[in-house]
């Protein structure tokens, strides 16, 4: 850590009215979001929770249609708690990071079973639920229950690190940013303060070309004064994972496709996939092909030109795709099943499998 990073910024008297300035800006410019309550009203904890889980690593634009589908089908947490995990995974398909969907369902079941269908109203109570970490607990507590706490998401991190020109890189800077963000809490409007900073980060203090002239904090923003706003927040260099390789087998039987379910635990747990090899760094094509499903009637596998590439959080993946078609009445190997190609949209395929199928079937 540099000596500059060690110096903790302190708010001055001049900065004491920052929360009020931010709230006044919010009252004029707040974003309209499907999960957000009208001005002056507390939000529905179910909608806040659902949106916060969906928004993890996903954009507001991508989440919107999924949020609407979920609340239409399951209008409250009790309804979601009574749904089957398969139905929830199917509805989630395409949003990525599938452990979130499994935790979402487990959380709804717990709220229904242990709390009579009512979310706990404290950070501590919320954190005891599946899939609710410190950030999500603080967001629900502030936005739905107006608890005096500041949830710090990526937008707020950016605003605060620029406002105080915090030199320490992420993720080490998180506790300091959290501490400084708390100085922006408005009295008795915790939820609005948090949402105001989120909106400020999303619409004004953007990663590139922040619109500082329109910002309610522009007269005392340290990074703006220095003119290097876009360089905050500082970030430690990224480690990219090692490339893994494997094979995927797209097998058709007339208008049907051979699929299986992934194990419940682990990456893409419980999702549907076409059969495939293990994914390893340095996996050789021959070794991957040797893991093809044993199917009567497959004389040879046809290798599709090119590869399917996908990037997971911790590693990039390349899959070689092999195709084959088998005669009618060919039995699916143990643990696999045939599904009509016409109904593939209803299956819980992760994005990587949608790419594989599109490549294999020339869709
Ligand atoms: S003045 Fe500019 S850099 Fe500073 S918080 Fe506002 S938008 Fe961000």
From TrEMBL:
GO molecular function, one term: 4 iron, 4 sulfur cluster binding
Broadest EC class assigned to this enzyme: hydrolase
Catalysed reactions, as listed in the record: Hydrolyzes free adenine bases from 7,8-dihydro-8-oxoguanine:adenine mismatched double-stranded DNA, leaving an apurinic site
InterPro entries per the UniProt record, alphabetical: A/G_AdeGlyc_MutY, DNA_glycosylase, Endonuclease-III-like_CS2, Endonuclease3_FeS-loop_motif, Endouclease-III_FeS-bd_BS, HhH-GPD_domain, HhH_base_excis_C, HhH_motif
Gene3D superfamilies cross-referenced by the UniProt entry: Helix-hairpin-Helix base-excision DNA repair enzymes (C-terminal), Hypothetical protein, domain 2, Nucleoside Triphosphate Pyrophosphohydrolase
Xref: SUPFAM superfamilies: DNA-glycosylase, Nudix
Keywords attached to this entry: 4Fe-4S, DNA damage, DNA repair, Glycosidase, Hydrolase, Iron, Iron-sulfur, Metal-binding
EC number: 3.2.2.31
Cofactor info, note text: Binds 1 [4Fe-4S] cluster.
Domain of life: Bacteria
Domain HhH-GPD: 54-203
Entry-linked Pfam families: EndIII_4Fe-2S (PF10576), HHH (PF00633), HhH-GPD (PF00730), NUDIX_4 (PF14815)
GO biological process: base-excision repair; mismatch repair
Cofactor: [4Fe-4S] cluster
PANTHER family, alphabetized: ADENINE DNA GLYCOSYLASE
Similarity field: Belongs to the Nth/MutY family.
Function: Adenine glycosylase active on G-A mispairs. MutY also corrects error-prone DNA synthesis past GO lesions which are due to the oxidatively damaged form of guanine: 7,8-dihydro-8-oxoguanine (8-oxo-dGTP).
Entry-linked NCBIfam families: mutY
Protein name per UniProt: Adenine DNA glycosylase
Organism: Bradyrhizobium ivorense
Record lineage: Bacteria, Pseudomonadati, Pseudomonadota, Alphaproteobacteria, Hyphomicrobiales
């Amino acid at each position: 850590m540099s000596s500059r990073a060690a110096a903790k910024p302190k708010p001055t008297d001049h900065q004491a009215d920052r929360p009020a300035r931010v709230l006044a800006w919010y009252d004029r410019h707040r974003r309209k979001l499907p999960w957000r309550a009208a001005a002056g009203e507390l939000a529905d904890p179910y909608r806040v929770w659902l949106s916060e889980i969906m928004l993890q690593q996903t954009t507001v634009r991508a989440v919107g249609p999924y949020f609407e589908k979920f609340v239409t089908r399951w209008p409250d947490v009790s309804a979601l708690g009574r749904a089957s995990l398969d139905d929830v995974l199917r509805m989630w398909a395409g949003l990525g990071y599938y452990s979130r969907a499994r935790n979402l369902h487990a959380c709804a079941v717990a709220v229904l079973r242990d709390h009579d269908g009512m979310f706990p109203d404290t950070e501590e109570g919320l954190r005891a639920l599946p899939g609710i970490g410190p950030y999500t607990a603080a967001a629900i507590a502030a936005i739905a229950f107006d608890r005096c706490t500041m949830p710090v998401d990526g937008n707020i991190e950016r605003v605060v690190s620029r406002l105080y020109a915090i030199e320490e890189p992420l993720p080490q800077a998180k506790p300091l940013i959290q501490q400084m963000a708390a100085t922006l809490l408005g009295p008795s409007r915790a939820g609005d303060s948090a949402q105001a900073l989120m909106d400020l980060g999303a619409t004004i203090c953007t990663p590139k070309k922040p619109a500082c002239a329109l910002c309610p904090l522009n007269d005392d923003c340290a990074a703006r004064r220095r003119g290097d706003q876009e360089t905050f927040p500082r970030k430690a260099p990224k480690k990219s994972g090692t490339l893994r390789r494997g094979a995927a087998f797209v097998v058709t039987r007339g208008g049907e496709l051979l699929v299986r379910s992934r194990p419940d635990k682990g990456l893409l747990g419980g999702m549907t996939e076409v059969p495939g090899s293990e994914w390893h760094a340095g996996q050789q094509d021959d070794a991957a092909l040797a893991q093809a499903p044993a199917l009567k009637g497959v004389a040879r596998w046809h290798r599709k030109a090119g590869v399917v590439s996908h990037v997971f959080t911790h590693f990039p993946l390349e899959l070689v795709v092999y195709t084959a078609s088998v005669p009618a009445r060919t039995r699916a190997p143990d643990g696999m099943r045939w599904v009509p190609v016409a109904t593939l949209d209803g299956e819980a395929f992760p994005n990587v499998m949608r790419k594989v199928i599109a490549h294999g079937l020339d869709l």
